Amino acid sequence: MTNSFDRVINRRHTCSLKWDFMQQKLGVDGSNKLPMWVSDYDFQAPEAVLDIMQQRINHGIFGYAERDNDYYQAIINWYQSRHQLTIDQDWITTVHGVLPGLSVAIQMLTNIGDNVVIQTPGYGSFRKITELNDRVIIENPLIETNGHYCMDLTHLEHCFQQGAKVMIFCNPHNPVGRAWTTSEIIALATLCQQYNVWLLSDEIWGDLAMPNHSYHSLLSLPPALLQHTMVATAASKTFGLSSLRISNIMIPNTELREHFIRRLDAHGMDVFNSLAMCAATAAYTTSSQWLDDLISYLQANINLLSKFINTELPLLRFMPPEAGYLAWVDCRKLHLSDDELEQKLINAGIVPSMGIAFGSDGSGFIRLNLGCPQETLQLALEHLKLALTQ
């Protein structure tokens, strides 16, 4: 049965980072604010997933658990049917979230003081896990033209020539919403191979490509280009399972994969959450149509924001995302500082992610989470207009 995405569900007082922790994380009294920041959505997980999890809960025993054949086969079948991508079961390693997996990979593939490339504007946690591991960030800014972003491969080659050991790639990209094309990822992977740079690809948004756009995984690359690649995937963004903490890192290179598994063991990351495995297996097995319905709903929200900006806030510029439900909105024509822009929005009752948090080239932008019922989005748009026209 398809969820009713229009249903407004009260998430306050559920330990929700997005709804309950604005004061602790942002210094903002969120008791009467609409949170449009953290990138999780306000929809229940698919009913079929909830039913299977309830059966598992009713069993009542939650001892040590391991991945079974159903878990692996659900992933393999999903990528084959959904993305026409053949995954070898041996490639699949399982971690307690994409970021822990990327952090372990950074520790494994680099030494303290080594250079790691990230593209900006980019997901701030890539910077966090790199710098907290005492590695050095090299920024490869994306090129923006009238709201459309592309990679600067000439500059990226210069970054590699400085001795970078690893690149963290976001495919599709957070926050700008690009679903990179096959030619773009081939050019990127070829450059990494040429300079012997390990390519870590976060593909957690891949299932959420919007209609008329396609997700192209690095796992679709020619085999020769896969040997320097690790691809992080998860059901969490797709099906609303983020706090269950289970992700998969696909590693075609056998030696690299065995090394990674040893590092996971060294961190005690060799036991898996039985409810998380149950939920991911069920989601991949039962919920393809549910996802189609979700994507249609999110596209309608994107269209609503686009129309609203064009008619009510023409100084803003919004390029609809090719994947994901995050809106990257250019507010630079307002000629406000980032602090001034943020304060106007907060005073009007809306809490976005500020673009400056994604790197200096995000200054003047905001990121809005459109993963909510349309009633909530309509209210947020009223707040947005109030903030920027008074």
From TrEMBL:
Documented EC number(s): 4.4.1.13
Please state every residue range assigned to the domain named Aminotransferase class I/classII large. 33-384
Cofactor(s) recorded for this entry are:
pyridoxal 5'-phosphate
Sorted alphabetically, which keywords does the UniProt record give? Aminotransferase, Lyase, Pyridoxal phosphate, Transferase
Enzyme class of the recorded protein, top EC level: lyase
- A Pfam family cross-referenced in the UniProt record is Aminotran_1_2
User: What GO MF annotations does this protein's record show?
Assistant: cysteine-S-conjugate beta-lyase activity; pyridoxal phosphate binding; transaminase activity
**SUPFAM superfamilies from the entry?**
PLP-dependent transferases
Source domain of life is Bacteria
UniProt similarity note? Belongs to the class-II pyridoxal-phosphate-dependent aminotransferase family. MalY/PatB cystathionine beta-lyase subfamily.
Q: PANTHER family under this entry?
A: PROTEIN MALY (PTHR43525:SF1)
This protein's name: cysteine-S-conjugate beta-lyase
Q: What organism does this protein naturally occur in?
A: Photobacterium kishitanii
